[in-house]
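question for whoever is on the cluster today: can someone run the full assembly for these? two chains, 467 residues total. i dont have access anymore since they changed the login thing
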Amino acid sequence: MYVMIREVEGSLYKLKYIKDEGRKTAIETIKEIGKPQADPTARVDRFLEYFTISPQSLDPAGVVWKLEHILDVRDVRFKDEVKFMTPAADEIQVNNLENTLEAAMALNYIYKVIRHYYLLGKKTLSLYIIMQLQMILPLIMREAEAYASALKAFAYGQPIGDGAGALVAAKLMYGHEKRKIPKDCVVATVPIEGRTAYVIKAEGPGGNVGKVGDGIKTIIEENEGKIATIIMIDAAMKLEGEEIGEVAEGVGAAIGGPGVDQFKIEESILKYRIPINAVIVKEDIGDAVSPMRKEIFDAVDKTIERIKQVILEKTKEGDKVIIAGVGNTIGIAQ
Amino acid sequence: MSRTPQNSATKISSFVLIIIFIGLALSLSALMVALAYFGSGNEVLAGYFLLVGFLGVALSTYVLFQTRRRIMRLKIEVPPVTTTIECRKCGFKSVREFQRGDYIFKEVEPCQKCNDKMLITAIYREVKEKLSP
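^ ran it for u. tokens below:
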């Protein structure tokens, strides 16, 4: 038990270091970009302690809309808070700073939870608490290290691995006319292989995931459901042993997050019986939130080829298709 | 982009450092006493002091090394990120280190060859994989 406690203690030290570095990076970036008149340290510390209470699901009917509302309120609150701390920052920088603070918040939370179980285990001298903690720590440390590199990427506005889907959409829509659609998304009408493709992505280059679900729903409604197929592109978790940047194809709504957007997309496609395809770029958690790796960047062109193949195989000339690039569009314009 | 961390988790406790250095000083003194005993012909006592001295030096160095290693482990590595700038007209390409404010599809300085506007076409990091058996 002593050996296990020492091991957890060592990891806790490292977590504390990562958490403190995250806080420091966030404060320094805010000072550098936002040029606040007062010291933002106290406000950042308060921000790091923010929490969100998920809606009650005893009666699950309508829980998605309640969750969406809570997440909207959280989003507005975060954005207001960041704007208050950084009066000199533009919209792109505000988005990047919000992401930076969220990463610092995640690190703070991880550290506090691990510390809680460590102290609880020591206090109660419970072998089982310490053992569980020691067993799960390698995975938690990987996640914390991933957030630490995410923090730097967000602070500098670098594209991250999660943006693979957004980059695919950006490459497809580059040079075509774009318009804004709800919420925080852009769409471009792009001719591909004789079909009309509505390419959707979150609006960049600020750190933003948008509400792709709303975007897809809007385009479906605009076309009265006359969409031949939807192709969603996203970064997905790879299993150990799989190659980074491997492209795979399947069916279903490829979108992560709390599930609100996936629910909305599934509702919309069910209403009009629209087939949905997914193309994913495989990467691990570390790659997803740290600056984009070359392998993932190179996978973008392979993904575009795969999309064209799906379009040729699943649709006829003159059809309308939706291509949605999902993911954080930080460092990726359109 | 790389900074020296000054964090409570990375600071070596001054108390620990004092203990290590006192240990090291005592061990070195033991070695010197051992040499003096060798000179005076008292080899048994010299042997004991030599043993204590060597053990002390080895232990102090090990503890110091371990403390340094903990700090090395705690550093967050910031991988170098490169930006590729391309001229869409003549195809001229240049690669440089990422600068804050860079983003994919950003129009940057004019092309050195044709004076047309250049575009950032790629931002990524290259990772050299460690070979596993």
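summary bc i know u wont read the tokens: Chain B has two domains: 14-74, 81-125. Chain B touches chain A through 28 residues (CB under 8 Å).
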